[in-house]
Amino acid sequence: MRIPTAIELHKAAKILTLKYAYGDVYQLPAEFLRVHLPSAEVQGHGKPVLQTGKLNVALNWIEPAGRSGLQLC
User: What is the pLDDT of residues 56-66, one digit of tens each?
Assistant: First the structure.
């Protein structure tokens, strides 16, 4: 498992940036995260639900969750 060396939240741009040791950088828009993360809303309790209308999603804060996860809110 690769763990980011830096995690940055850009509230105004609504982007989460993950940086890795070998120079990889991923910029993930809040809309993308809301539609693709395994939340109960997206998974539909075992029956995935197509997510639409998530254009005004914001990220207000992040915090560690477990050994390698993040809680996004």
Answer: 888 899 998 88
Q: How far apart are the first and last CA of the chain?
A: 24
The encoded tokens of residue 2 equal: 């690769």
The structure tokens listed for 5 are: 């060396």
Are the C-beta atoms of residues 9 and 3 closer than 8 Å to each other? Answer: no
Global confidence as pTM: 0.77
Beta strands in the chain (DSSP E): 6-10, 15-19, 25-29, 62-65, 69-72
Separation CA 5–CA 28 (nearest Å): 16
Integer Cα distance of 38 and 69 in angstroms: 12
